[in-house]
């Protein structure tokens, strides 16, 4: 990856390429110099630097500076199409499927090449939470755990409807029928579903996702942060550092 600032403990690097799967460009950004790779997926229409502008990188500063985590983020290409209502419903469903494929087959190999680690943590907020659970469920060999904050798992309302591609990228749809080696591997993973109950939060979506996971024997936990936590960045500033310390056993 190409460094865009002088090397420091929180050095930033950026890589951009044309994704043949999505048939458009995607950007991957990294902050940090060492540690467990953490892929933070943007909210619905966010780009790879959204988490920096909204100070989530700062909230993780101690973990990054100490070399505990190396933080990555990529553009929310499919989310941007949802927000802008690009194409028709079938196109938006296709693009969401292709976005998840691109993360698995393009973004993750780039992270591995940069970090040397075999498995990353995947996390995100809102639609990013949806994608984090979907990626872990679809590709459990690539990710060790998912931290889904303020999850929005009824993705159809953002896409505007349903087409066949959505089955493959929505865990609420494909998990009930999942069997075999992929399910067995997934049962060795963990999904953390955290949500407040303040403004614009809907913790029921997290509980519903937990029911789907639990029915297949996939370890998960729902944390209710209460009415003081809204569907906003300060909530995620509080959540993510705490969960990374807990789940990665960082002191």
Topology:
Elements: E1 2-3, E2 12-19, E3 24-31, E4 36-41, H1 50-53, H2 56-59, H3 61-65, E5 69-74, H4 77-84, H5 89-115, E6 120-125, H6 127-138, E7 143-149, H7 156-159, H8 164-169, H9 171-174, H10 181-186, E8 190-195, H11 203-215, E9 220-224, H12 233-247
Helix pairs in contact: 4-5
Can you walk through the features of this model?
The protein has about 250 residues and is an alpha/beta fold. The chain has one domain: Rossmann fold, CATH 3.40.50.1820. The protein is about 45% helix and about 20% strand. It is built from twelve helices and nine strands. It has helices spanning about 50-55, 55-60, 60-65, 75-85, 90-115, 125-140, 155-160, 165-170, 170-175, 180-185, 205-215, 235-245, and strands spanning about 1-5, 10-20, 25-30, 35-40, 70-75, 120-125, 145-150, 190-195, 220-225. A nine-stranded mixed beta sheet has the order 1-2-3-5-4-6-7-8-9, with helices on both faces. β1 (about 1-5) and β2 (about 10-20) form a beta hairpin. α4 packs antiparallel against α5 (about 90-115). The radius of gyration is 17 Å and the shape is globular.
How would you write the strand order of the largest sheet?
A: 1-2-3-5-4-6-7-8-9
| Uncertain stretches of 5 or more adjacent residues | 4-8
CATH architecture verdict? 3-Layer(aba) Sandwich
Rounded radius of gyration (Å): 17 Å
The H-and-E topology, N to C, reads as EEEEHHHEHHEHEHHHHEHEH
Tell me the span between the first and last alpha carbons.
29 Å
Name the overall outline. Answer: globular
The computed structural class is alpha/beta
- Name given to the CATH homologous superfamily: Alpha/Beta hydrolase fold, catalytic domain
Q: What number of domains?
A: 1
Q: What's the level 1 CATH class? A: Alpha Beta
Task: Report on the biggest sheet.
Answer: 9 strands, mixed
The chain-level mean pLDDT equals: 94
What is the number of helices?
12
Q: What is the percentage of strand-forming residues? A: 15-25%
């Amino acid at each position: 990856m190409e460094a865009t600032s002088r090397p420091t403990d929180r050095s930033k690097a950026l890589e951009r390429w044309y994704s043949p799967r999505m048939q458009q460009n995607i950007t991957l950004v990294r902050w940090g110099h060492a540690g467990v790779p953490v892929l933070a997926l943007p909210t619905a229409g966010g780009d790879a630097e959204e988490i920096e502008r909204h100070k989530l990188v700062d909230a993780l500063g101690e973990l990054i500076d100490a070399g505990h985590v190396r933080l990555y983020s990529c553009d929310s290409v499919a989310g941007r199409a949802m927000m802008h209502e690009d194409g028709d419903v079938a196109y938006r469903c296709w693009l969401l499927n292709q976005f998840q494929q691109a993360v698995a087959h393009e973004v993750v190999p780039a992270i591995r090449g940069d970090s040397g680690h075999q498995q990353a943590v995947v996390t995100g907020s809102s639609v990013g939470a949806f994608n984090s659970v979907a990626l872990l469920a679809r590709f459990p060999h690539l990710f060790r755990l998912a931290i889904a904050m303020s999850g929005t798992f009824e993705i159809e309302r953002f896409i505007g409807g349903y087409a066949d591609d959505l089955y493959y990228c929505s865990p609420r749809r494909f998990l009930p029928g999942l069997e075999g080696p992929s399910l067995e591997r997934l049962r060795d993973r963990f999904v953390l579903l955290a949500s407040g109950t303040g403004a614009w939060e809907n913790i029921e979506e997290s509980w519903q996702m937990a029911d789907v996971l639990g029915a297949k024997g996939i370890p998960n936990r729902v944390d209710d942060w209460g009415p003081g936590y809204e569907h906003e960045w300060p909530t995620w500033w509080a959540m993510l550092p705490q969960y990374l310390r807990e789940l990665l056993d960082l002191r």
